[in-house]
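Regression check, protoporphyrin IX containing FE case 162:
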Amino acid sequence: MESYNYFVLARAIHVIGVVLWIGGVAFVTTVLISALKKVPDTGSRLDLFERLEGKFALQARIVTVITGLSGFYMLESMNAWERYLQPQFWWLHLMTFIWIVFTVVLFILEPLFLHRWFRERAIRDSDRAFALVHRMHKILLTLSLLAVFGAVTGAHGLYLFQ
Ligand code: HEM
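Current build output:
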């Protein structure tokens, strides 16, 4: 198979990773947390959140690795690392930034202390803890959608904000 075809395959795998990953973040943000905030019993609210988001965390870990590997593979095969030095590729910076944030949260902060920290806060003041976690998800979702917008327009030759 020609090396260009491997590049196209990597792009398809990358986009499948993005769909499973950012699609999941969208579901957790707009559906799951919004619905949980309306559960009156704060104990079962926390229990449901931990069970459902915990299951998504495993999927998110796997697709974060796949998306990162396919993304770096594309950069390597296009020999396009110098894009990191060019402002018109702001969307590449944004994609990489989001990937770093998720990698740090999912692989380091969450297992080390974030899980326990959120649990303690939610037991003390559930409404405030869920409002905070909702805000964080909204920020990450907005940035992720902006990265998708920038990547698709940029990869197809429409350079905005330059
Ligand atoms: C380490 C992290 C990442 C790297 C190195 C990376 C790199 C790349 C590269 C090189 C391309 C191809 C660009 C081109 O054809 O000119 C691409 C495409 C794309 N990336 Fe990423 N990416 C990363 C993470 C992400 C994330 C987190 C998202 C979503 C929020 C994302 C969304 C996309 C999309 C939607 C495309 C497809 C554009 C298209 O073909 O229409 N990427 N990425």
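Comparison notes: The chain has one domain: 3-81+88-153. The pocket of protoporphyrin IX containing FE is lined by residues 11, 14-15, 18, 22, 67-68, 71-72, 74-75, 95-96, 98-99, 144, 147-148, 151-152, 155-156 (CB under 6 Å). No diff flagged against the previous build.
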